[in-house]
């Protein structure tokens, strides 16, 4: 039987429909329009495109958003001053600083300068700590999106062996921690692999749910995947393609054509995790707006 293609756009639409109702309620009952501030530093084309998509999604949802664009030469002090200003702004409930930042800026310092209650990306150590010990808080958008993709498509991770390939702070580690929690939509047995893992293919082959967050084009091949596994491809890699209009095309971390026939389900790139990431950013911003009512 052909693999079920886990359509991130479709799931994102379902979640956005639920969010639309919540946004309407915030507007009519509390006169609050959820607001997101995006901060873009420099001219990295991928970052520009991500920030553009995030602001566009806010507008489509009837949310407020404002973009702050700073030159690549901006100093850490100037960026911190902007964050301080956004922390105080009453109409801003979520702040997103697009990563990566230029070398002269300490990313961790910037993340820690964002008020945890406006940390729509969920990267602040306070929110990461809450994730680790299972307390409510903002969950990082891409990992949260992966979790929702699984549950919305009927693949409850409970009791399953999940293998996450990649251990970054923004993707691999938080995915592993989310799915490990003793709560619904989680309860998985989790193994995390990375560049120093011995016998990675053998471990990957044990996965009921294999999550690739590596940043290496088409790294996961058919021999690394068990028959009937569910595969979520987080990777977004630009590979040169002279026949493509832009001279490149996007591929994931999974060799889709050879892996898909073995799977029960697989997420494509593009159209998989990407739309989910943006949707969970909207979700976090709406939750931040709701929490602001309680002050
Ligand atoms: N769709 C989305 O919304 C979204 C969002 C964020 C990221 N992404 C994509 O997801 C991918 C991962 O992003 P990231 O920020 O987590 O990347 P990252 O910070 O570069 O981390 C990559 C991880 O993969 C591991 N790795 C690299 N090469 C490996 C190899 N040959 N064998 C085993 N493990 C290997 C690294 O291991 P070590 O720790 O040992 O170095 C590291 O833990 C990228 O393609 C990125 O573009 C997509």
UniProtKB/TrEMBL annotation:
One of its GO terms (biological process) is L-histidine biosynthetic process. Pathway: One-carbon metabolism; tetrahydrofolate interconversion. NADP(+) binds at residues 166-168, 236. Pfam families: THF_DHG_CYH (PF00763), THF_DHG_CYH_C (PF02882). Its EC number is 1.5.1.5, 3.5.4.9. GO terms for cellular component: cytosol. GO terms for molecular function: methenyltetrahydrofolate cyclohydrolase activity; methylenetetrahydrofolate dehydrogenase (NADP+) activity. It catalyses: (6R)-5,10-methenyltetrahydrofolate + H2O = (6R)-10-formyltetrahydrofolate + H(+); (6R)-5,10-methylene-5,6,7,8-tetrahydrofolate + NADP(+) = (6R)-5,10-methenyltetrahydrofolate + NADPH. Residues 6-121 form the Tetrahydrofolate dehydrogenase/cyclohydrolase catalytic domain. InterPro entries: Aminoacid_DH-like_N_sf (IPR046346), NAD(P)-bd_dom_sf (IPR036291), THF_DH/CycHdrlase (IPR000672), THF_DH/CycHdrlase_cat_dom (IPR020630), THF_DH/CycHdrlase_CS (IPR020867), THF_DH/CycHdrlase_NAD-bd_dom (IPR020631). Residues 140-291 form the Tetrahydrofolate dehydrogenase/cyclohydrolase NAD(P)-binding domain. Keywords: Amino-acid biosynthesis, Histidine biosynthesis, Hydrolase, Methionine biosynthesis, Multifunctional enzyme, NADP, One-carbon metabolism, Oxidoreductase, Purine biosynthesis. PANTHER family: C-1-TETRAHYDROFOLATE SYNTHASE, CYTOPLASMIC (PTHR48099:SF5), C-1-TETRAHYDROFOLATE SYNTHASE, CYTOPLASMIC-RELATED (PTHR48099). Belongs to the tetrahydrofolate dehydrogenase/cyclohydrolase family. Catalyzes the oxidation of 5,10-methylenetetrahydrofolate to 5,10-methenyltetrahydrofolate and then the hydrolysis of 5,10-methenyltetrahydrofolate to 10-formyltetrahydrofolate. HAMAP family: THF_DHG_CYH. Homodimer. This is Bifunctional protein FolD. The lineage of its organism: Bacteria, Candidatus Moduliflexota, Candidatus Moduliflexia, Candidatus Moduliflexales, Candidatus Moduliflexaceae.
């Amino acid at each position: 039987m052909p693999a079920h293609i886990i359509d991130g756009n479709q799931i994102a639409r379902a979640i956005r429909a639920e969010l639309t109702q919540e946004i309407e309620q915030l507007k009519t009952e509390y006169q609050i329009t959820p607001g997101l501030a995006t901060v873009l530093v420099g001219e990295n084309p991928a970052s520009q495109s991500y920030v553009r998509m995030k602001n566009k999604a806010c507008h489509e949802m009837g949310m407020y958003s404002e973009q702050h664009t700073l030159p690549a030469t901006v100093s850490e002090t100037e960026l911190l001053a902007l964050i301080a200003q956004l922390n105080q702004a009453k109409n801003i409930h979520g702040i997103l600083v697009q990563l990566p930042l230029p070398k002269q800026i300490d990313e961790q310092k910037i993340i820690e300068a964002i008020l945890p209650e406006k940390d729509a990306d969920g990267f602040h150590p306070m929110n990461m700590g809450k994730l680790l010990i299972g307390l409510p808080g903002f969950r990082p958008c891409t990992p949260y999106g992966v979790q929702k993709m699984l549950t919305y498509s009927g693949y409850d991770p409970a009791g399953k062996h999940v293998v996450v390939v990649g251990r970054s702070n923004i993707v691999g580690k938080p995915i592993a921690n989310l799915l490990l929690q003793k709560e619904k939509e989680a309860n998985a047995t989790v193994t995390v692999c990375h560049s120093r893992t011995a016998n990675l293919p053998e471990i990957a082959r044990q996965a009921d749910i294999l999550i690739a967050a590596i940043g290496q084009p088409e790294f996961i091949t058919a021999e690394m995947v068990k028959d009937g596994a569910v595969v979520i491809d987080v990777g977004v890699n630009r590979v040169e393609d002279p026949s493509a209009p832009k001279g490149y095309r996007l591929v994931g971390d999974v060799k889709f054509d050879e892996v898909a026939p073995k799977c029960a389900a697989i997420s494509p790139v593009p159209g998989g995790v990407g739309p989910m990431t943006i949707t969970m950013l909207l979700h976090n911003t709406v939750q931040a707006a709701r929490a602001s009512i309680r002050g």
